[in-house]
Design goal:
- The complex is a heterodimer.
- By secondary structure, chain A is α+β, with helices and mostly antiparallel strands.
- Chain A has helices spanning 3-8, 16-20, 41-44, 48-61, 69-77, 79-89, 354-362, and strands at 114-121, 126-131, 142-151, 156-161, 174-180, 186-191, 224-231, 244-250, 278-284, 288-290, 295-297, 312-318, 332-338, 343-348.
- In chain A, the strands form two sheets. Chain A has a twelve-stranded antiparallel beta barrel with strand order 1-2-3-4-5-6-7-8-9-12-13-14. A two-stranded antiparallel sheet of chain A has the order 10-11.
- In chain A, β13 (332-338) and β14 (343-348) form a beta hairpin.
- Chain B has helices at residues 2-22, 38-45, 67-73, 75-82, 100-115, 121-131, 136-149, 152-166, 171-177, 187-196, and strands spanning 26-29, 32-35, 52-56, 62-66, 93-94.
- A three-stranded mixed sheet of chain B has the order 4-3-5. Chain B has a two-stranded antiparallel sheet with strand order 1-2.
- Classes of the chains: A alpha+beta, B mainly alpha.
- The interface between A and B is large, with 49 and 53 residues.
- Chain A: InterPro entries: Tubby-like_C (IPR025659), Tubby_C (IPR000007), Tubby_C_CS (IPR018066).
Chain lengths: 372, 201
């Protein structure tokens, strides 16, 4: 075999000089770069394997915020870098990591929960969710979501948004809302995006208009019901622990596969989601009565330091990510509790997403008539 | 086989001869003057010339390199020599997508790392940093050449450098450094990006 043939049979990419001179060398089995003549397309249009290696190395080093912004930066440099970054972020070993806003709707990590903080501003009835970057309860961390409570005559609503300043349903940053009944014991969680293909928006009490500045206008605007939370009546026991049940429409967390990639702005629908929605049912872990201390106790492993009726731990009774759909009642999937006057911790893991976890925790605030 | 025996014999003699050889061990290799390890000088003195191979750049310039330097670093060239498709008397290896300037640099890298592999880590890293002190065009060409020739440690080095060029930079700066003029987003997408991450631009 001639030497020339040995080398020509390999896949290779044009050198920078040749790309700019718009001369196409003979390429066998390699990618042909159509954008010849465009300056600077070498770095934006390089072989996917090489670009993938570069972005993978950035991603692996920047697991934590604020350095993870370097991964987000890669996704904004140009279209090809964005596609590659999303592919790398979407890989199974990255499940649960928070990179883009769209990650807030994706299931949390499988093994160790994501530790978050919720800060309450009583004056403005606003709640802020942060991803904890240090174990300290006083450091805020990376801002994720904000929610504001609006009281109406017969019900209360919490509007959840990506923008801490703009908490209206009409904004681009609107993520979803939580709606409660008069007694404050039954809540419905709504998402601004359909949880699965073919989902129909709920006919809300009030028709709200959404900003028309969506990248994918074919996404139906509206609120989609994605979960329910209810607190049980506690007629006999006063001051006893609450009992709560949540049912959530979760996209099934495939045991090996990655879920599909959503766009950076989080507006594109995921057309490869299964047609039939799956359901996760959670209930709170019952605390034990501590005879000596004369109080109800739950082991929060140091993440909750102030006793409060709001504190809870949720375990799954029905969990589609487990074989057979049966939930593991020993694993705490969501833990919420007070650590300061207006500071709470929230730890969540798969199959819950940050958005769902935040919405469930919000239900714990506010008085519940006939419940305590 | 013969070479191996000679090397072993030399290793035994080494402590004695190293002293008087080290004073004048200078030999041109690959276009640069490089300090040679005593073993190689002794080999040359004894009449076993180091095998050379010819590499031909896209501009048809021929570079003569020690075979074992390239074989040590480039998987592609190593495979070629091993499977016997390279004939030392007549052949030259055509590298149609590596230009002369880049090929010379690649050869420099391989040669330095072969002859200085016993240097301490700091010196090697300093040399590498100086070696990659090139503009983004040059870096791109080196990346392509290292990928083509499958030179693992050079590839890792270049990836590391590029990664450091990206980290901590704003997006507009990254585009400038890598000369990316057309980002490929629609005006609406670009506006949305800037709204969503104002501090990153």
């Amino acid at each position: 075999m001639s030497l020339r043939k040995v080398f020509r049979s390999r896949k290779f990419s044009k050198s920078f000089m040749e790309v700019n001179a718009a001369v196409a060398p003979k390429v066998e089995g390699g990618e042909k770069k159509e954008e010849a003549g465009e300056e600077g397309n070498a770095w934006s249009g390089m072989l996917p394997e090489l670009l993938g290696e570069i972005i993978r190395r950035v991603e692996v080093e920047e697991e934590q915020w604020p350095q993870r912004q370097n991964v987000v930066a890669c996704a904004c440099v140009c279209k090809r870098w964005r596609d590659m970054t999303r592919e790398i972020v979407g890989q199974p070993h990255n499940n649960g990591k928070i990179t883009f806003p769209s990650c807030l709707r994706k299931p949390g990590p499988r093994e160790l929960p994501n530790q978050c903080l919720i800060k309450r501003n009583k004056k403005t009835s606003t709640f802020y969710l942060y991803l904890a970057l240090t174990p300290s309860f006083t450091d805020k961390g990376k801002f994720l979501l904000a929610a504001r409570r609006y009281r109406f005559g017969t019900h209360t609503e919490y509007i959840i948004s990506l923008d801490a300043e703009d908490l209206s349903q009409g904004s681009n940053a609107y993520v979803g809302k939580l709606s409660s009944d008069f007694l404050g014991t039954n809540f419905t969680i709504y998402d601004s995006q359909p949880p699965h293909a073919g989902a129909k928006p709920s006919s809300g009490r009030s028709s709200r208009r959404f900003a028309s500045k969506q990248i994918s206008p074919q996404v139906p605007a509206g609120n989609f019901e994605v979960g329910q939370v209810s607190y049980k009546f506690n007629l006999l026991k006063s001051r006893g622990p609450r009992r709560m049940v949540c049912s959530l429409k979760c996209p099934a967390t495939p045991l090996g596969e990655t879920s599909d990639i959503t766009s950076l702005d989080g507006n594109k629908t995921n057309s490869k989601d299964q047609a039939t929605p799956t359901c996760t049912v959670l209930k709170n872990k019952a605390p034990r009565w501590h005879e000596h201390l004369q109080c109800w106790c739950l082991n929060f492993h140091g993440r909750v330091t102030v006793a409060s009726v709001k504190n809870f731990q949720l375990v799954a009774t029905v969990d589609q990510s487990q074989p057979g759909g049966k939930g593991d009642e020993d694993t705490v999937l969501l833990q919420f509790g007070k650590v300061g006057d207006d500071t709470f911790t929230m730890d969540y893991r798969q199959p819950l997403s940050a958005f769902q976890a935040f919405a469930i925790c919000l239900t714990s605030f506010g008085t519940k008539l006939a419940c305590e | 086989m013969e070479l191996l025996c000679i090397r072993q014999w030399i290793s035994g003699l080494l402590p004695t001869v190293k002293k008087w050889l080290s004073a004048w061990c200078i030999k041109p290799v690959g276009g640069a003057l490089v300090r040679q390890e005593p073993e190689y000088i002794l080999l040359a003195l004894m009449g076993s010339p180091l095998k050379k191979i010819m590499l031909c750049s896209s501009e048809k310039e021929i570079f003569s390199v020690e075979e074992q330097v390239m074989v040590q670093h480039s998987v592609i060239i190593n495979n070629m020599i091993e499977d016997g498709s390279y004939n030392h008397e007549e052949s030259k290896i055509p590298l149609d997508c590596v230009d002369s300037k880049t090929l010379k640099k690649v050869i420099d890298y391989c040669t330095h790392h072969t002859h200085h592999h016993n240097d301490n880590q700091e010196d090697l890293e300093a040399w590498d940093a100086q070696f990659l002190n090139v503009d983004s065009n040059g870096l791109y060409d080196l990346l392509m050449a290292a990928n083509y020739l499958e030179i693992r440690n050079l590839l890792d080095l270049i990836y590391g450098t590029i990664k450091n060029m990206i980290k901590g930079k704003k997006i507009d700066e990254i585009r400038r450094i890598f000369n990316i003029k057309d980002h490929g987003f629609t005006p609406e997408e670009e506006e949305q990006n800037r709204k969503e991450y104002p501090h990153f631009y």
